[in-house]
Amino acid sequence: MDIFHDIFSLQLSLHGLEELGEPPSTLPTVGTNLTDLKLKKKKMTLRELGGCMGPIWPSYFKDCSSVIFMVDSANIAQISASCIQLLSVLSAEHLHNASVLILFNKRDMPCTMSLVEIKSLFRMDDIIASATQPITTQELSARSGQGLQEVLSWLESIIVK
Hints:
Blueprint: H1 3-14, E1 32-39, E2 42-49, E3 66-72, H2 79-90, E4 99-105, H3 115-122, H4 124-130, E5 135-139, H5 148-160
Parallel strand pairs: 3-4, 4-5
Antiparallel strand pairs: 1-2
Helix pairs in contact: 1-5
Keywords: GTP-binding, Magnesium, Metal-binding, Nucleotide-binding
GO molecular function: GTP binding; GTPase activity; metal ion binding
Organism: Champsocephalus esox
């Protein structure tokens, strides 16, 4: 289950179209997925890029106005690699003015660190202080839906800009 499926599902749910059934099991994104959303009467295309595609991410940055960067906060072994990928994204020339939402996913898992601990490992305060972009951080459980309404609100706020 990917964040875009969840956002789309939440959007349908908010509009009374809740007959989606059980969400599929969570799988990492392999490749790329495109999802079109209509928020505040404006169309937005979300392109999800799997983490394994990190080396070619820059080829998608040219027309990008915002970034949602998802961190698997239950996978402690990948935290440092995620931080390095995030720093690479933030330093990309085409993204210097992009709005950035960093999502710490899987907050519902029993083995996750506290948000304070994970932000400390990421050195979020230093990253935010040195970034050229406006950065928002958010806890999320894509599986349970916790935090998805806040993600939609963030998306709606960047459409207005």
